[in-house]
Design a protein that fits this description.
Elements lengths: L1 H14 L2 H8 L3 H7 L3 H25 L4 H17 L5 H5 L7 H26 L3 H24 L6 H16 L10
Length: 186
Amino acid sequence: MEAALSVFVEAGYHGAAMDEIAERAQVSKPVLYQHFPGKLDLYLALLEHHTREVPELVNAALKSTEDNSDRVAAAISAFFQFVERKDAAFRMVFESDLINDPAVAVRVERMSTQCATAVSEVIAEDTGLQPEQSLMLGVALVGMAQVVARFWISQEPPMPRAEAERLVTVLGWRGIAGFPKAPEAD
């Protein structure tokens, strides 16, 4: 799986070859095909793993504290952590050259929706906004974090991660803090 990930990240789906994956994995091509009937099956298995991982990171970040400004910081940090990993799995998740394939699109959309929903639930609980309003804000915050983290990692040299996270956290927190907290229920 590591060998396949590295080939897909470097070459994209269309440029990746099962021969190269087998060679890097130090297995024969028939052995590779015993585990995965085709290149798409292998790609989808990797994508499935990584698109499940991102919402887990976001949920863990949201549960890591009860302080809302710290929650914003932790959720934003989850995206920076994911894009900074050495395996560059984020390229498969966020920059796939196969995004128009329905099987890929459904996994990426599910991941984005799960992240935005997790954020929106915290927003709804704290502000009393309607679910559709909270979801719109959740999508906005998750989208901002994901796009900025990808932009940050592409810069040469990138600004220190802590500074990038701080800037985005301030922006996100100042925006979401503009929505008043719901009165405490007795």
